[in-house]
Design brief:
19 helices, Amino acid/polyamine transporter I
Length: about 450
């Protein structure tokens, strides 16, 4: 497993043994799915799902599992490449670059820019959560504290440390939201009806159908979907024998995302439904405090902290390794200089950690608004994801790369639907960017 191709690519991580064929062994082995799940669930998700529950009650709840089904199809296809490709590529980044050399440069530039944009939003969420929990300092300085903690965890590029921390955070978040649900009280019959594909009457300025489609497209149009193959590589799941545990792992992570999203949505439906002007973290925390007492805001801010901090740490780790991998694709001689020990051995990895966490400056009170970042994010990410999906379809159907493991018609149909959704997301993203400018 430690051999390299003559092309100068970095070696695969030593493959770990698949778990034994029993439920407990699989459960203990899970990790990449948990890390990517908590990297997906960020500040925006918690606030958006709370507000959606407040605006529509349980009526649009069915959008969550629908969007996650499509996300599973997409990400599971991404996870297939590192396990089966005949070129022994250690990551999806190298595979996509095989479709056309320009993809190497496209990924390098996009990942560098997106790292700063994503952390600008996520670090501010960490600051808001810590300020809500502990007070005493402005949210900017709490964001700095959060950035320093992420720096300490990610600097050495130790995936196992990150996985252990994320598992602990997941337990805390699950307990937090279970307590929140118990205190708020859920109308279980109404919650069950929320999965009945109902489109309620318009609330506010947006049609409910548009809201539903936007939630699905936001899920599929996220660059965070590309993180999962990197976590597989770090875990050591790099052979066809790992495909079964990989699927179960991703399914578990998807269920985690669904549970957290439904829990937040339900709390929003019970606490915020019928309220006007609730759109920020402080509003939601205040409403929860009114509903269940002084412990309410702490429940919300603790959940927000878990979501924001894990998004920062998981995204920064994944994007930094992907930048190094992209750099090694376009500069093979650099890969030869740092052939062992993974991306963390290349100094560019550490510079990316600093570059990402430097986005904490956007949390300063006097910092410019996020409009410029939002515009760049829409213009950059949506078309980029569409190109990646198209490249993935081409990649997984090339026999010179996938050998006998090329896609079947069902897999291609699933990815074709994903490509269609991402194409719509790209059009919407650019439309929003133009609206922001003008």
């Amino acid at each position: 497993m430690g051999e390299r191709e003559s092309t100068g690519t970095t070696p695969r991580r030593a493959a770990s043994d698949p778990p034994a064929e029993n439920f407990l062994a699989y459960l203990k082995a899970f990790g990449p799915g948990i890390v990517v799940a908590l990297s997906w669930v960020g500040t925006g998700d918690l606030i958006d799902n709370s507000v959606a529950g407040g605006n529509y009650g349980y009526a649009l709840l069915w959008v969550l599992p629908l969007s996650l089904v499509f996300r599973f199809v997409f990400v599971n296809a991404l996870g297939k490449y590192p396990l089966y490709n005949a070129r022994r590529d250690p990551s999806i980044v190298r595979g996509i670059a095989r479709v056309h050399p320009a993809f190497g440069w496209l990924m390098l530039v996009s990942f560098v820019i997106y790292t700063h944009i994503l952390l600008a939003f996520s670090l501010s969420g960490v600051g808001v959560a810590l300020a809500g929990l502990f007070g005493g300092l402005p949210s900017f300085w709490w964001a700095v504290v959060g950035a320093l903690s992420v720096f300490a965890v990610t600097l050495r590029g130790a995936y196992r440390v990150i996985e252990r921390i994320f598992k602990a955070v997941l337990v805390i978040m699950v307990v937090t939201f279970v307590v929140g649900i118990a205190l708020v009280g859920i109308r279980w019959g109404e919650l069950a009806k929320g999965f009945a594909f109902e489109l309620p009457a318009q609330q506010g300025i947006f049609d409910s159908g548009l809201v539903a489609s936007s939630l699905v497209l936001a899920t599929l149009g996220s660059m965070a979907n590309l993180f999962y193959p990197e976590f597989l590589r770090e875990k050591g799941w790099t052979t066809p024998a790992h495909r079964k545990v990989q699927r179960y792992d991703l399914l578990f992570g998807t269920v985690v995302v669904l549970f957290l999203a439904v829990a937040v949505w339900a709390i929003g439906a019970e606490v915020l439904f019928g309220r006007q002007g609730v759109s920020e973290a402080g509003d939601i925390a205040g409403a929860l405090g009114t509903a269940v007492g002084p412990v309410g805001p702490y429940i919300f801010y603790l959940g927000l902290l878990g979501a924001a901090w894990t998004t920062v740490a998981g995204s920064l780790f994944a994007l930094s390794t992907m930048v190094v991998e992209s750099l090694h694709v376009v500069r093979p001689r650099r890969a030869e200089r740092y052939p062992e020990g993974g991306a963390g051995r290349d100094p560019v990895y550490r510079w990316m950690i600093v570059w990402g966490l430097a986005a904490v400056v956007w949390s300063l009170p006097q910092a410019p608004g996020f409009v410029a970042l939002v515009v760049v994010s829409h213009v950059l990410t949506s078309p980029f994801l569409l190109l990646i999906v198209i490249a993935l379809i081409v990649l997984l159907n090339r026999r010179d790369i996938m050998a006998e493991y090329v896609n079947g018609w069902k897999e291609n149909l699933g990815l074709g639907l994903v490509a269609l959704f991402v194409a719509v997301a790209a059009v919407q993203g650019i439309g929003k960017a133009v609206a922001e400018i003008f």
